[in-house]
Amino acid sequence: MKRYIPLALRIIVAIILLQTLRFKFTGHPDSVYIFSQVGLEPYGRIGIGVLELIAGILLLIPKTVWAGTILTLGIIGGAIFMHLTQLGIEVNNDGGVLFITAVVTFVLSTIILYIYKNDIPFINKA
Fold this sequence. Notes:
Blueprint: H1 4-19, H2 21-26, H3 29-37, H4 43-60, H5 65-87, H6 97-115
Helix pairs in contact: 1-4, 1-6, 4-5, 5-6
Transmembrane segments: 7-23, 43-61, 68-89, 95-116
Main location: membrane
Keywords: Membrane, Transmembrane, Transmembrane helix
């Protein structure tokens, strides 16, 4: 059971990242609104979508989990920062769902990175 928990966490975070891509890549009005508010529409929306796609794939490949997790922490850290500084916790009357999802994703990614910390190649393993 213990060995399946890291895999489950990776799959959960990958699903969260990958399920948002349809909104970013199709130009959903909510996604366009969010990225317009932070001055990143349309290039930031598409660029971050591509980065989320890469992170989601890296999380599912055992040898690159560490890279996917670090990339996810950067992306989601930026999203949380934008919520706290420009967007607010609630966006378009969503009840804070996007913000809560970002926080959950950040926490799960932190746990995953801790689990896979020994796989990071540039960390001294002395």
